[in-house]
Amino acid sequence: MTLRTLFRARHVLISIAALALAACAPAPIYQVAPGTVAALPAQVAVSPENYSKGNVIWGGSVIAVRNFPDHSEIEILAYPLDSSQRPLMNAQAAGRFIALFPGYVEPFNFPGGSLITISGQLNGNRSGAVDQAQYVYPLASVSQSHVWTPAEMRQGHPDIHFGVGVGVGIR
């Protein structure tokens, strides 16, 4: 075998490995429409007038569910999203927002701490408080939402561990 043949074989193997890894990652769940706001909730909270009525795809961890006579609100601690639109929980939190749902939502389906991604339209903001601190919450009228299961959060992430010694894993 010549050196050139080895380089070609290596190049082919690297290409196959890259395609295999890309195939493992799930596709985004929502289409990013033209004009979708790329700003995170914390950025929108600082200057909401710059983002009025824009479309958003945001996600994070459910903090609270509140039901009212004609709508429901879910307060969410936002995180940046990965390429599949899953919240990146090891990233720094990106502010809070309130997801507005028409009608009643069952709090049991949105337990505190569950991970969610929503698609919707900005619908103003509301002043409130986080503990004793004043806070401006961007409001997003939800057109679609998805609560992530633990299996979906693991999907596309290789379950490979390197180390020396003995280990026990229970799932």
Automatic annotation (TrEMBL):
- Extract the signal peptide range: 1-22
What InterPro entries does the annotation carry? OMP_Slp
Keywords for the protein's UniProt record, in alphabetical order: Signal
Quote any Pfam family the record assigns: Slp
Which PROSITE patterns does the record associate with it?
PROKAR_LIPOPROTEIN
Tell me the domain of life.
Answer: Bacteria
The record's GO CC annotations read: outer membrane
Instruction: Please verify whether the record's keywords include Signal.
Output: yes
Protein name per UniProt: Slp family lipoprotein
Q: Native species of this protein?
A: Dyella dinghuensis
